Amino acid sequence: MAFLDHAATTPIRPESLVALTVAYEHTGNASSLHAAGRQARKTVEEARESVAASLGCGPSEVIFTSGGTESDNLAVKGLYWARRAEARGRVRVLCSAVEHHAVLDPVAWLGSHEEAVVEHIPVDRLGRIDVDALAHMIALDPDSVALVSVMMANNEVGTVQPIAEVVRLAHAHGIPVHSDGVQAVGSLDVDFRLSGLDALTVSSHKVGGPHGAGALVVGRGVSIEPLLHGGAQERLRSGTLDSPGIAGFAAALAAAVDGHAEAAHRLTSLRNELVAGVLELVPDVVVSGDPDSAGRLPGHAHFSFPGCEGDALLMLLDARGIECSTGSACTAGIPEPSHVLLAMGVDPELARGSLRFSLGHTSTPHDVRTVLNELTPVVERARRAGRPRIRPVSDAVR
């Protein structure tokens, strides 16, 4: 089997599995005062210090959550509510058109339920935001902007965003900036303090930790309203802490961050070999994302195959032991073109034939060779099958 869907989830790292197993040997609620509770609290606080060291922030800035989606919701809604509480006129939410749905959907919810005015920052053909457009959007009425949210790197095409420029433009008017760093952390050099961000989303299973854990880093002095109410275990986030999951998350993050430079070099080489091979085998394939390795995540390779359905390609590859992703949504059973590709100006028909291969810490040259050995017959079969077409009424009644 060749697993090339690390952007969706990545196999658990040995370091994480060890930490997880050790933590599961102890029973205790981190909020309890007895010995077992104190042991669980010790596990959580040691993990908090480790996560802070990995991300370049203070331990008090780390809020543990159930993962990236919860962190994004807490950041987007929490910042919006806090900013509106300070000034009712702060209703505009600016986010990029290529955000993950964990950002797009809560932003849309704010628009339909909380009087937010949602504005999407356009991107270029590489999937990178138009900084000049953002500057213009802010300048129209800076005092009405509640927050800006731009991901560090795109989950589909891998394009890295100019976060420093986003922060500079927003902070010039006192506007907080959130960034979804789920794909970037562990692949790029991420330092929260140096970035100037006000909030950063991180996910455990994307760096080789267990599912169901993550964090939102919130800068000191940043006002944010809680999403969940209850025991206030994490101040801004209520709920019994998953001590073993948090321990496994911290261990995986440390391993990913410590080895990210070497991993990036190795994965870039494998990715470039894959891209070159696919271009040779399928000359009319379209490669999406920044062609410059410095502007793209090291393990991402995104292709659109003319005349093919992405789902058909995916299933044909899956039958041959190759696991990847289409990166597209499915609404009511009908495949829809990726919103990311559409925002980049890709033709909808071409976008429907897209595949994302994403490499990670377990990827090998053999995985790449497996894809290249199987790809040609898969594309040929998908093209022969063609796309289902509705016959004209005149034909149907003959």
Automatic annotation (TrEMBL):
Keywords: Iron, Iron-sulfur, Metal-binding, Pyridoxal phosphate, Transferase. It is an enzyme of class 2 (transferase). GO terms for molecular function: cysteine desulfurase activity; iron-sulfur cluster binding; metal ion binding. Its cofactor is pyridoxal 5'-phosphate. Its EC number is 2.8.1.7. Residues 3-369 form the Aminotransferase class V domain. It holds the Pfam family Aminotran_5. Belongs to the class-V pyridoxal-phosphate-dependent aminotransferase family. NifS/IscS subfamily. This is cysteine desulfurase. It comes from freshwater metagenome. The lineage of its organism: unclassified sequences, metagenomes, ecological metagenomes.
